[in-house]
Design goal:
This protein is mostly beta strands. It is 3% helix and 46% strand. Strands 51, 53, 54, 56, 57 and 58 form a 6-stranded mixed beta sheet that branches. The longest helix has 19 residues.
Length: 1224
């Protein structure tokens, strides 16, 4: 016999309420059995647990608990009965292996697990071992009982050393993973019983993420779990992290927690959140993580798909409570262990609350605010999550009859709306929202309801329990406010009670000071739903103010949730006196503040603000006086507020006033470096500004010439401003300096008046030219430069440029210079001068003579055509242009010649251009030359010969045909249309057009006056490609048309058919054959009919002698074949004798078999004469060979082939073959 570990993973959805309702399963909150005020209603909830650290369930619904402080393992059956299954006493010890578990000694048992066979495993942490209970017997599976240490890797696990192992887990193969807490390692016991280390190097610390797990560091790993994908998750307690070891790569990483011992991150990524002492971790089928965040008194959940973390249970406080509510509302106290059963229920060891609690997967509990019966509450969201490993199909979101007093909100625009759907499957690890409304129909305290949801999940249905106080009237709430808090003794205070209700409020409100009523009940003002009362207090103390609303026929009575604390203090008065108001800037200012009205001397500080800016404070002395040395204030008005904040006995008071700060006075002096100077000589003016001895004025000084500001100069750090001027015009000037002031000092004007005298400056004028020798019409630039004898300024004014006594131009100086460009200097020598007229500051001056020589200008003659090349029959303009490179164009005559022959003379216009017009030119090249004769200013010149290209005028040839599809023998008309391209000239087209079929010329025809040529041709063959070519003339170029394909079909014809064409009959019988003649291609004619190759004694007759076939029609003829009457001639056979010639012809017929054979080869005959000739010859041959006497013995039995023939009058002939079998 052998043991085999069996395991499996079910596939299916799992509906989990998130959050679910929490309840206590075991433990009464007391450390020992006996009277306990928090005992529950079952044996399990009325018995004591001591610091439990582990829990698990089996398939029968039994709950197993590590009663850690009592050193026992307890079992709670489904009815709540408690038994001890391991541990002999509360005293820790190590003994009992191999014996009954109930007589063994344990030491601080922790994590517990149950296998499929019902064997119980637990971490006997104090004994440094993992132990198993099987069939009531106990044994050690890992560790040396009672011995702590590290060792044994590679050997049997039950002789290895562990150190305080807190957690363990099995994988699907039955391998055991142990959180070897004291050794800071994760150990593995395989199914053969050997132990090894799979994670951690044994050194307490944090490192190794991203590397091999064996090299990583842990710090007191407390819990471990193996996910369905084989990944290992470790609760790294002192590192405040959940670590992950990849099942494939063995790489270590962090799955949750950033290492900081704190409580943050809900709603964000788990790796960015903070944990505090995570002691246990488990996974569900969807891969979600559940973490016992022990020091945060919470259970956290990490969504596998999104990586987001949230709190699943615990409100963060250490106060026990919340049973019967959704788990986030409950108080937990150091939860150190979590466990999931197959239905998704979460169990936790609430260690310091001394309880084992369960968070239901299938039941949630929602509490609603107090409401009126018959109304619908605002919706509250309840999340449903699929924590299985297959899609979840919700089948009914409000299943009856279980659903009562509950409804769902599906309004998409509401803040909370239902997203769950019965039409869309919920993917694995996804969630949806139920927006649940409470709809009680009767009064209850509390009223209850249920929403039931069904699905394809194995734990269906799930339910949400609804509860809330339900009244016969609408609930109300009361809030109290104070008109002044704190307030002074004897000062009137108004209290207002605000009643909130959906209805108009009536009734009264009684106000209370503690338990003492304040006055009588006050009526509620229905317009504002408020009631008020005004009172005052004579006692210095805090007063607890409440207001009780009486209610009315629509609204319930209500009290404030929180009382208003009214503070009463002694009234005080504050006064402040400044040492001066207004005060000059830079003078010391003091505020003297006095608090009065007190009975006990006030203490504390008086604070001073300038507007909203604090400027300091001063401490009160024993007489209630404070002196405040005011820091420097800017010039202007300041809104000063002094505040006494009050103390334990004295009410606050304040005092406000306006403090004015005035500008400090200043004085200004002025000096000059030179009182008399020539224009443009630099003169320095110096202004000095002084203020109070403790500061130097800043800002700027304006230097003025009378009322005109010359410049504004900033003061130096010494209060000095210097201004250098070289632009004062000639004359007398009165100079002053004005200080413009700054934020602290007032303005001031210099007391000295400076009189400055300025004289004119002598000048000299220089003249230059861009060239002293130039060509007529070329621009020459003259430049005059005027220089002042002193200073660096540039004279202004006008320059006259003179050519002798002739004024060439007048221009203003610019920066002491001016240029004039002229092209009008005469040929010869020109004497040029420049005369400066002077200005207010500078004297006049004249340049010396400048001689410039002007020569005649060379010219260039160019020749162009209005169009080149040009078509024949086109008018042409020849243009000659003469240029001299100057501003004035040449004048005079131009002579034009064509091919060395003078053709005309033209006169240059103002632009130097002359033209000649030519009506047209013959095709070819023509050479033109233009010759310029010159004038007084310009030299003659000839153009370069210009070649004019004259081209034949292009044409187009458009070919059309009378048809593109012909029948044999049909004539075709061809039309060629020749056109000139562009505008039509007056001279028309001449010449011939050639018509071709492929490369063969069909015909040639001259074009008429309209450019059209026409021919009619007969085309051979079955197809042709027709084209045409215009041969051109003296003015027009040749051209060809696009080829046109023409198809030539057969001539009209007919079809002959017979029914039947084969038959059997007895000798001397007759048969009628239906002969059909069909017109093809409108064939029309009359026909001769005959039977060729009939056997002896057989005849055929036709219903029509010469049938006529109309075009496009069908003609029917009956043919009677008779095998019992000799053929006497004609188209029918008779029994009686006829003429001899007809009888002889009948004798010819049997011999025509040879003709029938020939007819099978040649089915059309053009000559009826040829047919008759052949028939005659063959008939004669047959007659000679055996046509004796005519007898009627009938046709001999056998099979005979013969033809029925039809021949038209135009010679077209066809036949049809017939087969006749004579049976007897």
């Amino acid at each position: 016999m052998a043991d085999q570990n069996l395991s499996g993973i079910g596939i299916g959805s799992l509906t989990v309420m998130t959050p679910g309702e929490i309840n206590t399963l075991s433990g009464d909150g007391c450390l020992s059995d006996g009277s306990c005020p928090t005992s529950g209603s079952t044996p399990a909830t009325s018995s004591a647990l001591k610091l439990p650290l582990g829990e698990a369930t089996d398939a029968a619904g039994n709950l197993y608990i590590s009663d850690t402080g009592n050193n026992r393992i307890r079992k709670v059956d489904p009815f709540g009965n408690v038994t001890t299954i391991a541990g002999s006493s509360e005293i820790a010890g190590f003994s009992g292996d191999g014996g009954s578990a109930t007589t063994a000694q344990l030491s601080a048992p922790s994590t517990i697990a149950i296998d499929g066979a019902g064997n119980i495993f637990f971490a006997d942490t104090g004994n440094n071992a993992i132990r198993e209970i099987s069939a009531g017997k106990i044994l050690t599976v890992a560790g040396t009982l009672g011995s702590a240490g590290f060792g044994g890797d590679g050997h049997a696990a039950n002789v290895a050393l562990l150190s305080a192992p807190q957690g363990f887990a099995f994988d699907a193969s039955g391998d055991l993973y142990i959180a070897d807490t004291g050794n800071h390692r994760i150990r593995k016991v395989d199914t053969s019983g050997d132990i090894s280390t799979v994670a951690g190097n044994g050194i307490a610390g944090y490192s190794g993420d991203g590397g091999a797990a064996l090299s990583g560091q842990f710090d007191s790993p407390w819990g471990v779990d193996v996910a369905t994908d084989g990944n290992l998750y470790i609760a790294d307690f002192s590192n405040n992290r959940i670590r992950r070891v990849d099942a494939v790569t063995g790489i270590l990483s962090t799955a949750a927690g950033d290492g900081t011992g704190s409580y943050t991150g809900d709603g964000g990524l788990a790796v960015n959140a903070t944990l505090n002492g995570p002691a246990s971790v488990v996974t569900d089928a969807a891969g979600n993580l559940y973490i016992a965040d022990s020091e945060n008194n919470a259970i956290r959940k990490v969504n596998h798909s999104t990586g987001l973390i949230a709190t699943l249970a615990g409100n963060g406080t250490a106060l026990f409570g919340g049973d019967g509510l959704n788990a986030p509302l409950a108080g937990l106290y150091k939860p150190y262990s979590v466990y999931l059963d197959g239905a998704g229920n979460l169990f936790l060891a609430d260690r310091l609350d001394l309880r084992i609690r369960e968070v239901s997967a299938t039941v949630a509990a929602l509490q609603y605010p107090t409401m009126k019966e018959g109304k619908t509450s605002a919706p509250i969201a309840q999340k449903i999550e699929n924590d299985g490993n297959a899609p979840l199909d919700l089948t009914d979101l409000a299943a009856l009859p279980a659903t009562t007093n509950a409804a769902l909100d599906f309004t998409s625009t509401d803040p909370i709306t239902t997203s769950c759907s019965i039409s869309l499957a919920l993917p694995v690890d996804s969630s949806c929202i139920l927006a649940i409304e409470f709809t009680p129909v009767s009064v209850g305290a509390p009223g209850t309801g249920v929403l039931s949801v069904t699905s394809n999940s194995g734990n269906s249905p799930v339910a949400v329990d609804l509860s809330g106080i339900v009244l016969s009237v609408d609930p109300s709430s009361t809030t109290v406010t104070s008109s002044l808090n704190a307030a002074a003794v004897g000062l009137a205070v108004t209290f207002t009670a605000h009643i909130a209700s959906p209805n108009q409020v009536t009734g009264t409100v009684q106000f209370f000071d503690g338990a003492t009523p304040i006055g009588i009940p006050q009526a509620v003002n229905p317009a504002s739903d408020t009631a008020t009362i005004t009172t005052s207090f004579a006692v210095l103390q805090s007063h607890s103010i409440t207001a009780v609303y009486s209610g009315d026929n629509l609204n319930a009575a209500s009290n404030p949730n929180h009382p208003l604390i009214q503070i009463i203090e002694q009234a005080t008065y504050l006064n402040v006196i400044p040492t001066a108001n207004p005060e000059v800037e830079f003078s010391q200012l003091t505020f003297n503040a006095t608090v009065s009205g007190w009975t006990t001397a006030p203490s504390g500080n008086i604070t001073f603000t300038d507007g909203i800016t604090s400027i300091g404070s001063a401490t009160l002395n024993g007489n209630g006086v404070a002196s405040f040395q005011v820091p420097s204030l800017a010039v202007g008005q300041h809104n000063i507020t002094a505040v006494f904040p009050g103390d334990a006995n004295d009410f606050t008071s304040h005092y406000s006033f306006v403090q004015t700060i005035s500008l400090a006075p200043s004085s200004t002096t002025l000096s000059t470096s030179n009182a008399v100077a020539q224009f443009a000589t630099p003169i320095t003016f110096t202004a000095t500004v002084t203020g109070v001895s403790s500061s130097t004025p800043t800002g700027s000084v304006a230097f003025k010439d009378g009322t005109i500001t010359l410049a504004t100069v900033s003061l130096s750090g010494l209060g000095v401003a210097a201004y250098v001027n070289s632009t004062l015009v000639a004359g007398t000037h009165t100079i002053t300096a004005v200080y413009l002031g700054d934020a602290d000092y007032a303005t001031s004007t210099s007391t000295q008046i400076i009189t400055e005298t300025i004289a004119q400056t002598a000048t000299s004028t220089m003249l230059s030219a861009s060239a002293t020798s130039s060509i007529s019409g070329r621009p020459v630039t003259l430049t005059a430069t005027v220089t002042a004898s002193t200073g660096s300024h540039k004279p202004t004014g006008m320059i006259n440029f003179m050519d002798g006594n002739i004024v060439l131009g007048t221009s203003p100086l610019n920066n002491g210079m001016v240029s004039l460009t002229t092209s009008s200097l005469e040929v010869g020598t020109d004497n040029i001068t420049a005369i400066y007229s002077g200005d207010s500051n500078d004297t006049t001056s004249r340049s010396g003579l400048l001689a410039i020589t002007i020569l005649q200008a060379p010219t260039t003659t160019t020749l162009i055509s209005s169009q080149s090349p040009v078509p024949t029959l086109t008018a042409l303009v020849i243009t000659a242009t003469v240029s001299n490179g100057g501003a004035n164009n040449p004048t005079g005559l131009i002579t034009f010649s064509e091919d060395s022959v003078l053709i005309g003379v033209g006169k240059l216009d103002g632009a130097g251009i002359a033209t000649i017009s030519i009506p047209s030119l013959a095709a070819g090249s023509h050479t033109f030359v233009a010759s310029y004769a010159g004038d007084s200013l310009d030299i003659p010149s000839n153009s370069v010969p210009f070649t004019q290209d004259v081209q034949l005028r292009p044409t187009t040839d458009t070919l059309s045909t009378s048809a593109t599809s012909l029948t044999g023998g049909q004539q075709l008309t061809l039309i060629s249309v020749i056109r000139s391209t562009g505008s039509a000239p007056s001279t028309g087209l001449t010449g011939n057009v050639s018509f071709l079929s492929g490369n063969i010329t069909l015909a040639s025809a001259p074009i008429d006056a309209t450019g059209v040529a026409t021919v009619t041709v007969l085309l051979p063959g079955t197809s042709a490609t027709i084209s045409s070519t215009y041969n051109g003339d003296a003015n027009y170029a040749a051209s060809s048309a696009t080829p046109t394909p023409v198809t030539i079909g057969p001539p009209p014809d007919f079809i002959i058919q017979a029914t039947p064409t084969s038959w059997q009959m007895q000798s001397k019988q007759s048969l009628t054959v239906k002969l059909m003649l069909t017109s093809v291609k409108s064939f029309a004619d009359s026909f001769s009919l005959g039977c060729l190759g009939l056997p002896k004694n057989a005849t055929c007759t036709f219903s029509q002698d010469k049938p006529n076939l109309e075009a496009g029609s069908v003609q029917s003829v009956d043919v009677t074949v008779d095998t019992g009457t000799p053929l006497l001639g004609g188209t029918e056979a008779r029994a009686e004798s006829r003429s001899v010639s007809r009888g002889i012809f009948a004798c010819f017929l049997p011999g025509c078999v040879l003709f029938g054979l020939l007819g099978s080869r040649v089915r059309r005959f053009r000559s009826i004469g040829l047919v008759l000739l052949l028939m005659g010859v063959l008939g004669l041959t047959s007659a000679l060979s055996g046509c004796g006497s005519i007898e009627n013995n009938g046709t001999t039995p056998g099979t005979y082939n013969f033809m029925i023939n039809a021949t038209s009058q135009t010679g077209v002939s066809h036949f049809v073959n017939m087969t006749m079998t004579i049976t007897q």
